[in-house]
Amino acid sequence: MPEALSLLCRVPAHPESRCWALAWSPSGALLASCGGDRTSPRCPQSPQCPQCPHVPVSPCPGVPMSPVSPQVVATLEGHENEVKSVAWAPSGTLLATCSRDKSVWVWEVDEEEEEFECVSVLSAHTQDVKHVVWHPSLQLLASASYDDTVRLYREDDDDWLCCATLEGHTSTVWAVAWDSSGHRLVSCSDDRTLRVWQRPCPLPVTPPGVPCPLPDPVSPCVPSCPRSLPDPCPLTGAVATACGDDAVRVFEEVTPASPTAPVTFGLAAHVARAHAQDVNGVAWHPREPGLLATCGDDGDIAFWRYQRPEGL
Amino acid sequence: MVGAGPGAAPLENANPLIYRRSGERPVTAREEDDELPDAIDDREIFDLIRSINDPEHPLTLEELNVVEQVRVKVNDAESTVSVEFTPTIPHCSMATLIGLSIKVKLLRSLPDRFKLDVHITPGTHASEHAVNKQLADKERVAAALENSHLLEVVNQCLSARS
């Protein structure tokens, strides 16, 4: 099975520290990472991967390969503890943040004025909020929390409200991710499972901002490990996980035996020692199918090529 | 809250049972031989944590029987360490701090390859699940250690007594 995922190269992006998370730019030309090293003398350097020269790596968040370093245009204040996650809505007009202070904040973005106005503080979770992510096409926000739940939020008149709570995980939900259609949501948890949540209706025809009721039917749980992070590939639908056991795994939907058979996912690739320590982040390339970047406590960023094994 | 002396808040467990310290580890002939690798074993981990100071009493975790060698499990080949600790009373508010001190001591002492599992001996604390969940959350542990006040308290627990 290991040949389903093969290492392309490894970049020591955050030496002597750890790398918490990764994100590709929409074109796939840039990869941003953030680490525990707050000093940034390394920022201007951008190590180039010898085997995939089209993948420049920026070792510091917000410092891409442009000749001019971006400047801070706004600082968003309000959270009482460290901010865990931030996400742009696909429209670009909204931003969401979450924190250990248990709240999720939705911000309205005025790009021309470079102004960010808080439009809602959502306190649905009872514990730290670990991750926020927007639906790929609707103004629908999902958050994952230490309180073992996933919550969904939508706009209602001028405010935002929690419109669904997804319960089932038995420990911290580390992260959530939508598939490219927005039809399914996958969550990963300290309870060592992933859960795939599916809407009961076909793709919603309701206007943006009004999600269909509750994406309830829970399809199978597949084994995973603590602090894993799921990321479904926008191009292939394969779900990659970053895991606290140093491993990277890829799960795929198993071709159903009959149209009425329940949806199941299977393990398609497993690299046991993908990093020297915990793996913290995974990110599929947005344009090139099967190109995966991973990062971990060892401070490295690794690039992998994934090919779906036959007969899955 | 910590280092409570006379005149400070009353201790939660004012009169704890005190246990005898174990002796020094006997050194075997094999261990004297520098040519042979020594695996990390239960006793080595126990020796790292037994002298950690209790946050409340001028005693070590070993003297209070909070840590015991039989509750330390090491698998050197698989790079796993599991430590169970037993708060002296079921409502001990210091349980998280004690667990954090054990975790930090091991994080600082062991090679990076080790996966640490520090948890409360099952059935010995009222908030066992909540404490274990906190100790297992590496983001929370990282955030706790960025809190300079808390880090100072942990360092006091880990400092050698004069």
Automatic annotation (TrEMBL), chain A:
What are the WD repeat spans here? Answer: 76-117, 122-153, 166-198, 272-312
UniProt KW keywords: Repeat, WD repeat
* GO annotation (BP), single: iron-sulfur cluster assembly
Database matches in SMART domains = WD40
Cellular component, GO, one term: cytosolic [4Fe-4S] assembly targeting complex
Q: Which InterPro entries match?
A: CIAO1/Cia1, WD40/YVTN_repeat-like_dom_sf, WD40_repeat_CS, WD40_repeat_dom_sf, WD40_rpt
Matching PROSITE patterns: WD_REPEATS_1, WD_REPEATS_2, WD_REPEATS_REGION
Pfam families according to UniProt:
WD40
Query: What does the UniProt record say this protein does?
Result: Key component of the cytosolic iron-sulfur protein assembly (CIA) complex, a multiprotein complex that mediates the incorporation of iron-sulfur cluster into extramitochondrial Fe/S proteins.
What interactions and quaternary structure are annotated? Answer: Component of the CIA complex.
Give the similarity note.
Belongs to the WD repeat CIA1 family.
Q: What is this protein called?
A: Probable cytosolic iron-sulfur protein assembly protein CIAO1
The species this protein belongs to is Cyanoderma ruficeps
UniProtKB/TrEMBL annotation, chain B:
Q: Which UniProt keywords apply?
A: Chromosome partition
What does this protein do, in the record's words? Component of the cytosolic iron-sulfur protein assembly (CIA) complex, a multiprotein complex that mediates the incorporation of iron-sulfur cluster into extramitochondrial Fe/S proteins. As a CIA complex component and in collaboration with CIAO1 and MMS19, binds to and facilitates the assembly of most cytosolic-nuclear Fe/S proteins. As part of the mitotic spindle-associated MMXD complex it plays a role in chromosome segregation, probably by facilitating iron-sulfur cluster assembly into ERCC2/XPD.
UniProt lists the gene as: Fam96b
Q: Name one Pfam family in it.
A: FeS_assembly_P
Query: Where is composition skewed (Basic and acidic residues) in this entry?
Result: 21-30
> Where are the stretches annotated Disordered?
1-33
Q: How does it assemble?
A: Component of the CIA complex. Component of the MMXD complex, which includes CIAO1, ERCC2, CIAO2B, MMS19 and SLC25A5. Interacts with CIAO1, ERCC2 and MMS19; the interactions are direct. Interacts with KIF4A; the interaction facilitates the transfer of Fe-S clusters to KIF4A to ensure proper localization of KIF4A to the mitotic machinery. Interacts with CCDC117; the interaction is direct.
**Does Transferase appear among the keywords?**
no
One GO location term (cellular component):
cytosolic [4Fe-4S] assembly targeting complex
Residues covered by the MIP18 family-like domain? 43-114
Annotated GO biological process: chromosome segregation; protein maturation
What InterPro entries does the entry give? Answer: FSCA_dom_sf, MIP18, MIP18-like
Question: Which protein are we looking at?
Answer: Cytosolic iron-sulfur assembly component 2B
So what family is this one in? Answer: Belongs to the MIP18 family.
